[in-house]
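Sequence in, structure out.
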Amino acid sequence: MQNFLKINENDNVVVALNVIPAGEAVQVEAQGETKRVTALEEIPAGHKMAICDIPEGGEVIKYGYRIGNAKEAIKCGNWIHTHNVKTALGDLLEYTYEPTPVEEKKTEDATFMGFNRPDGKVGVRNEIWVIPTVGCVNNVATAIAKQANAFVKGTVEEVIAFPHPYGCSQMGDDQEHTRKILADLINHPNAGGVLVLGLGCENSNIDVLKPYIGDYDENRVKFLVSQESDDEIADAVEIIKGLIDYAAGFQREPISVSRLVVGMKCGGSDGLSGITANPLVGRFSDLLISKGGTTILTEVPEMFGAETILMNRCANEELFHQTVDLINDFKNYFKSHNQTIYENPSPGNKKGGISTLEDKSLGCTQKSGSALVKGVLQYGETVKTPGLNLLSAPGNDLVAATALAAAGAHIVLFTTGRGTPFASPVPTMKIATNSRLAGKKSNWIDFNAGVLVEDSNMAAETENLFNYVVEVASGKKVCSEAAGFHDMAIFKQGVTL
């Protein structure tokens, strides 16, 4: 295996796959010829090395795109990182729709073993969810789930509480976001039954929340106001026994993968994220879409610098303008809080070899594959159109993964070069960018994309990942589920009373 990778023929950098010691020479194609480049200093794994001289202010090219400008003259063989390259991004930009031709492929259908719901939706889990309307009853919800799990039977897998700190003392969009996300989770088909647990005096009390929930199956969704109960835990457990009886009537059966919705997210990225795991998820996305399925890409701030790639793949001009608004609304959100739009990448990203936001974004957006953008969703909005969708949500791992679940994702694919144990309301599959992480944290990592720079290839690993997702959709637990982790987080933007 070679020690470096040149991603695009137009790049003026290579990425070190292993440490390249100072003085070591590599053979690389550059400007149409093979040349010998000697490392002038040690190049850490995942980091970049210049393969030609770059003048001060010159463009640093990776993935075939500019990832920043040189702060100083960079010599061929120099290590390129935050010390000598800076972002070239500005604030709000003007965009022009220049549609990219995309061939829409169709491939043979496949099936997973899932649960058909009476409302026409499908689920990949048959769980009972306890959804608190307000943080004041979080501990009660957790206690209820703990006791009620003793009564799980049949195809019901688990009783899960989803505590959160909101539902009261919120204003404006924050309160709306809380209500929409809670309603989305109450309606999520991975839950065979739901207990909505209220306090009674909160802003987002049960009566206020019901219009957001809309029509619901009274056998599937139950409500309990704690202040109206003599013993809310005992009463709730009795209610959940009935929900378990109802949900136990559902059996897994073959369902077309065209009904599957998969969210896509990355976190703790490194220099291999845009080379292994993210492109692999992109290929998976294209494959699922070719079978009629749906994927959702989020974390808008990590589209900055690569947004035109997505804009020009919009299926029509209306979607293009929605995507422009998606990007600029998030930039205005940063500006309204007097924050730097491009305050990214994180310390962990930098340690892994990512130097600028463009560097991160061009790797991040590869999870979108090459399909047309068919839908653009606001935060708290649920997916309606099959194919690739873009979702408004921040980069924060827990908030974004929860937003994907609330938008309708049955499963979230989470690529990582640093590793993380967190979960979300739906199965959250961790995909390692490198084999070292996959080996060290096998209790966190579900799939190793690091083999793409070792002894495997993209076609084989795309098939392997697709088959693994089908297994998870059919009931196989991911690591975070096996550990008993179930997280959720709601996007907070404004004032707390």
